[in-house]
Amino acid sequence: MVENAALRAIRLLDLVPYIVSHPGISIAELAREFSISRDEVLKDLNLLFLCGLPGYTPLELIDISFDEESVVIRDPQNLAAPRNLNESEALIARIALAALEDSAPKSSAAYPEIVALREKIAKAFSSSIPASAITYSLDKERVMLENIEGAIKQELDLEITYNNVTKDSSTRRSITPISIIAEDKRTLVSAYCHSAKALRTFNLSQITEASTIERLTRADLERLEESRGSSAEVLIKEEESSFLLENASSLKELSNSRYQIDIFQPEWIVRSVLAGADSLELAQPIALRAEIAERARKALLAYKG
User: Fold this and answer.
1) In terms of domains, do 177 and 203 share one?
2) Burial class of residue 201 (count of CB atoms within 10 Å of its CB; 0-12, 13-18, 19+)
3) Which residue of 7, 96, 207, 286 sits 20 to 30 Å from the alpha carbon of 16, by its own alpha carbon?
4) The CATH number of the domain where 36 resides is what?
5) CA neighbours within 13 Å on the CB side: how many for 209?
């Protein structure tokens, strides 16, 4: 494959200041640093030997000497400083650094260096590309999903921070991830929760942090079904019901419009039925049905008041 002349010229502009700042570097080390072969390094060095300022007498040529073990430039002819980034290169670097800054833990030793370098490049190019013109948003759910999939494959546990929208609180818990359930409007993680000592389903969008840990205790996954909570029966009056669409994988159809669903938190099914009262009715259990009726009665009284 013939190398692009422009790319080679750019490499030569980088090669000169690098050799100046690393006098005596070997050809093998240069090849590793620039990801090229030994023969390509020799071709570049021989070309530099013939380069210089206009006039091109021996006085204006780059003064370079080299052998296998040592490369030295004594007179770089105004090329001692590394080339500056152009506007496009600066933009690419700033976006990449913003991505690193967003994904790297703030406790990481590299984090302040990433921030400092991004701010330095932003300041140098602020006239052409203002800092406010660049925004970056990490697809955190995708990253989280990859971490969970990796934990499942490597048979590791996870420590997660989970936002419980029903209780409006966050909890820290250890789980053994079992599988990932992809639905139309959400992604669920089926896992054994070591805090609850039972099988639980977690909404991926409500997991704010997840880190892998060694699996210290192994749950009997074949008996996890026994640890499921109670179940409820619901009547769904509309095919386009949001409850039906969001919980399709968890619903078991009993008859026309009647479904069974496992519930781990009674409060969740109570709130779900109240929120979707126009298309959803709880048939069983009777105790939760009575709770829903009582809350609806109090809400109506509050409106009258």
Assistant:
1) yes
2) middle
3) 96
4) 1.10.10
5) 10
Alpha-carbon dihedral sign for residues 236, 242, 246, 249: positive
The answer, yes or no, to whether residue 246 has pLDDT greater than 80, is: no
For tokens 């700033």, the residue is 94
Whole-model pTM? 0.42
Degrees (nearest 5) of the Cα angle 28, 33, 39? 45
Token readout for 88 is 């496009």
Q: What is the token pair recorded at 122?
A: 């932003």
Higher-pLDDT residue of 9 and 31 is 31
- Same-domain check for residues 222 and 150: yes
In a domain, 82, yes or no: no
Residue 182 structural domain: 140-227
Domain at 166, CATH number: 2.30.30
At residue 227, the pLDDT reads: 46
Burial zone of 283 (CB within 10 Å; 0-12 exposed, 13-18 middle, 19+ buried)? middle
In three-state secondary structure terms, 305 is: coil
Looking at the structure of the chain, the number of domains it has is 4
The widest CA-to-CA distance across the chain, in whole angstroms, is 99
Same domain, yes or no: 222 and 248: no
Distance of CA 54 to CAs 48, 59, 75, 76, 82, Å? Answer: 14, 10, 15, 14, 21
pLDDT tens column, 204-234 = 888 888 888 888 666 555 555 444 557 888 8
* pLDDT above 80: residue 62: yes
Gap between the Cα atoms of 194 and 157, Å rounded:
10
